[in-house]
Design brief:
Blueprint lengths: L1 E5 L8 E5 L9 E11 L1 H7 L17 E9 L11 E5 L8 E5 L3 E3 L6 H4 L3 H14 L7 E4 L5 H12 L3 E6 L4 H6 L4 E4 L5 H8 L5 E6 L6 H6 L1 E9 L13 H6 L3 E4 L7 H15 L12 E6 L3 H10 L5 E5 L12
Parallel strand pairs: 8-9, 8-11, 9-10, 11-12, 12-13, 14-15
Antiparallel strand pairs: 1-2, 3-4, 3-6, 3-15, 4-5, 5-7
Helix pairs in contact: 3-4, 3-9
Length: 337
């Protein structure tokens, strides 16, 4: 099979195509002929050596989510059969023509959806659900601030919070404001022109929001804490702006009884990942069938153009997910959801 490999840590230019053996199927595995794979920030971190080793996970190959057709089954698999179209999370190995997936992390592809859009669902929507509801305990009458709202997880979080009936504040750049509003945000903040802390203070009469979902890290830490209501929660999903040097106003954490929690999927155990997928699937999967939820695809690249896909990821210009296709669609297909 064709697969994307990396022999040294570094920039996107280190990603190359090679011929490799098809993965062996273990008892709980589905072997999936990959139609499309999602590109995630964690892939870039792995490529740069931030995890310290290439095989951080279940495979030396990159990639955490796929969509495609089941072509083989392990002896302990239940609920799936050869020929089923599935999407789901893998412990590495998505950047290839075939990938193995534990059947407990698989989900049926929604009705009428192609592989490209299906591949844009698993990682970001499961992560968003975990941050908003399992950890963040967001309820219908509460408010949430979602940073980086035009990104993969951000676009999923805005949609899920909207469907849950929450009041949504969302930060993004000016050129992406209208897209985020269309997904259900109530107030979109241009982070370059406005202080999100001041906006939230004014729009909530000084009360603050119940939940902050943050991807930026240290530069936003103090303002995030000052934006939380009494008993508020902050879920740290990423540290795009760095993880050290931020100011933590502990007095406010104490007196307002605030909670701060981090979450990342890549380092979790298989059992934890399976539980995350199950929680998301039970609550939300059916909403993709009729379009109440939809994946947001920024662009599609052929597997051979993975280097260009990573450059797009690192440009900061993407809206939603960047997808790799084994069908060689080229990189000129931009979705406008």
């Amino acid at each position: 099979m064709k697969a994307v490999v990396q022999n040294v840590f570094g920039g996107p230019e280190t990603l190359k195509i090679e011929e490799l053996p098809i993965p062996e199927v273990r008892p709980h595995d589905l072997l999936v002929r990959v139609g499309a794979a999602g590109v995630n920030r964690a892939d870039a971190l792995q490529r740069m050596g931030r995890y310290g080793r290439a095989n951080f996970g279940d495979s030396e190959l990159m990639g955490l989510e796929v969509a495609g057709e089941v072509v083989d089954l392990g002896a302990s698999v239940s609920g799936y059969q050869i020929g089923d179209r599935v999407m789901g999370i893998v412990g590495g190995g998505a950047y290839a023509e075939f990938a193995r997936m534990d059947h407990r992390m698989a989900m049926p592809i929604p009705r009428g959806m192609d592989d490209v859009r299906a591949a844009a669902i698993p990682e970001v929507f499961v992560t968003a659900h975990e941050a908003l509801f399992h950890l963040g305990r967001l309820e219908a009458d509460q408010s949430v601030l979602v940073h980086a709202a035009a990104g993969g997880v951000g676009s999923a979080a805005v949609q899920l919070a909207h469907r849950a009936g929450a009041r949504i504040f969302a930060s993004t750049s000016a050129e992406k404001l209208q897209r985020v509003l269309a997904w259900g945000a109530d107030r979109v903040i241009d982070y370059r022109a406005e202080s999100f802390q001041q906006v939230i203070d004014a729009d909530t009469d000084g009360q603050g929001v119940n939940l902050v979902v943050d991807f930026i890290g240290a530069p936003y830490l103090a303002a995030n804490i000052h934006s939380l209501a009494e008993g508020g929660r902050m879920i740290q999903v990423g540290i795009l702006g760095g993880g050290s040097g931020g100011e933590l106003p502990l007095d406010r954490v104490l007196y307002r009884r605030l909670s701060i929690m981090g979450t990342v999927m890549k380092s979790r155990s298989l059992e934890e990942k399976c539980a995350m997928v199950e929680r998301f699937s039970e609550r939300w999967l059916a909403l993709f069938d009729d379009g109440r939820l939809h994946p947001v695809v920024d662009s599609v690249y052929a597997l051979e153009d993975t280097e260009a896909a990573h450059r797009r990821l690192e440009s900061g210009q993407a809206v939603g997910k960047i997808i790799l296709s084994t069908a060689a669609l080229g990189n000129d297909r931009l979705a406008q959801e």
